[in-house]
Design a protein that fits this description.
The chain is mostly beta strands and 142 residues long. It has one helix at 55-70; strands at residues 2-9, 17-20, 34-36, 39-41, 97-105, 108-116, 121-128, 134-140. The chain contains 1 helix and 8 strands, in the order E-E-E-E-H-E-E-E-E. The strands form 2 sheets. It has a 6-stranded antiparallel sheet, with helices on one face. A two-stranded antiparallel sheet has the order 3-4.
């Protein structure tokens, strides 16, 4: 399994933010890239920036979402974990957070994601792309 990108909307990231491992413009280092389904992927990524820029929140989003997925069958609500929505302004504090993974597994591209508030899973979806976009499942809860 190889991660292609992680999309988050969580804590200090009010808008969707993408962490992509797709290689672009690295012709000088082609020998270290991973070839997966006609895509060139980076074997590692670095997150850097000034203090207070959100680096730790990317790691928190990865941790939260993977723990939530891992323990979903035992969880009743996202608040079981350290769920923290965007809180840098008054009008976004109740906005849902989003977590989405796009990855390759055995040559097939998948996208899995969920959108959650403190009290409910708003939606959850899984797509695969062997020939075209087809949902494996998609749920929206009200």
């Amino acid at each position: 399994t190889m991660l292609l990108e992680f999309i988050l909307k969580y804590r200090s990231f009010r808008d969707e933010t993408i962490l992509s491992l797709e290689a672009e413009g690295l012709s000088a280092h082609r020998d270290i890239l991973i070839n997966e389904s006609n895509k060139k992927l980076l074997p590692v990524a670095a997150i850097y920036g000034k203090n207070g820029g959100g680096k730790s929140n990317v790691i928190r989003a990865l941790w939260f979402s993977t723990q939530f997925i891992k323990n979903a069958k035992d969880s009743k609500a996202p608040s079981t974990y350290s769920y923290n929505p965007f809180s840098l302004n008054d009008y976004s504090t109740n906005a849902p957070s989003k977590f989405e993974y796009t990855f390759f597994h055995e040559g097939t591209k998948y996208t899995y994601g969920f959108v959650a508030t403190k009290t409910e899973i708003v939606s959850e979806y899984l797509y695969h792309y062997p020939k075209n976009k087809r949902p494996l499942f998609s749920n929206a809860h009200s």
